[in-house]
């Protein structure tokens, strides 16, 4: 990978241009995410509701969940269809999202509580919402570590 910085007189604001063979590379995603964070622009994801395309800030999303053939982004106010699969979302979402089960990815910043509900799973509740998701035993240990890191 080559990195080049050009100084241009008269620019109103800094501009970052990424030239790449594939926008799917891990390095490109990290650079793009860093540039967006530095610009103060909240990262968003395209969602659909009744034929309308919406751009939801990732910070408002409580969790992503598969229902049948589709993936939905859940907020406190509703659920919106997303055109990504969960494995694709895992690659593009910021580090404050974590897998909780085969069918769910959580926003760790929105988690309010985790309760042992069944012997094999934990019930996750979200701040300011009635919505709940189960965390499977397989993903729970990693999820708990990430939640503990958040609280430090």
General description of the model:
The protein is α+β, with helices and mostly antiparallel strands. The chain has a single domain (44-150), classed as Beta Barrel (OB fold (Dihydrolipoamide Acetyltransferase, E2P)). It is 23% helix and 37% strand. It contains 3 helices and 10 strands. It has helices at residues 26-39, 86-92, 137-150, and strands at residues 44-49, 52-57, 63-67, 70-75, 78-82, 97-101, 104-107, 111-118, 121-126, 132-136. Strands 5-4-3-7-6 form a 5-stranded antiparallel sheet. A 3-stranded antiparallel sheet has the order 8-9-10. Strand 6 (97-101) and strand 7 (104-107) form a beta hairpin. The mean pLDDT is 88.
Please give the structural blueprint.
Layout: H1 26-39, E1 44-49, E2 52-57, E3 63-67, E4 70-75, E5 78-82, H2 86-92, E6 97-101, E7 104-107, E8 111-118, E9 121-126, E10 132-136, H3 137-150
What integer is the average pLDDT?
Answer: 88
Main beta-sheet annotation: 5 strands, antiparallel
In CATH, what is the homologous superfamily? LytTr DNA-binding domain
Q: What would CATH call the class?
A: Mainly Beta
Order of helices and strands: HEEEEEHEEEEEH
CATH architecture: Beta Barrel
CATH topology: OB fold (Dihydrolipoamide Acetyltransferase, E2P)
* SS content category: alpha+beta
Q: How are the strands of the largest sheet arranged?
A: 5-4-3-7-6
Q: Unreliable stretches, pLDDT < 50, 5 or more residues?
A: none
Portion in helices: 10-25%
Q: Strand fraction band?
A: 35-45%
Count of helical stretches: 3
Separation of the first and last Cα atoms: 35 Å
Number of domains: 1
| Radius of gyration over all CA atoms, rounded | 18 Å
The total of beta strands comes to: 10
The outline comes out as globular
């Amino acid at each position: 990978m080559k990195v080049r910085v050009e100084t241009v007189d008269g620019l109103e604001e800094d501009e970052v241009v990424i030239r790449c063979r594939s926008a799917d590379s891990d390095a490109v995603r990290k650079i793009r995410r860093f540039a967006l964070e530095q610009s103060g622009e909240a990262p968003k994801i395209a969602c659909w509701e009744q034929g309308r395309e919406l751009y939801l800030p990732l910070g408002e999303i409580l969790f992503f969940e598969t229902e049948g053939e589709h993936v939905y982004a859940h907020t406190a106010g509703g659920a919106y269809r997303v055109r990504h699969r969960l494995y694709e979302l895992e690659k593009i979402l910021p580090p404050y999202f974590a897998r909780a089960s085969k069918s769910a990815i959580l926003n760790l910043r929105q988690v309010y509580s985790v309760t042992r509900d069944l012997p094999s799973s934990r019930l996750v509740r979200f701040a300011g919402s009635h919505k709940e998701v189960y965390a499977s035993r397989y993903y729970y240990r990693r999820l708990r570590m990430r939640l503990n890191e958040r609280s430090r």
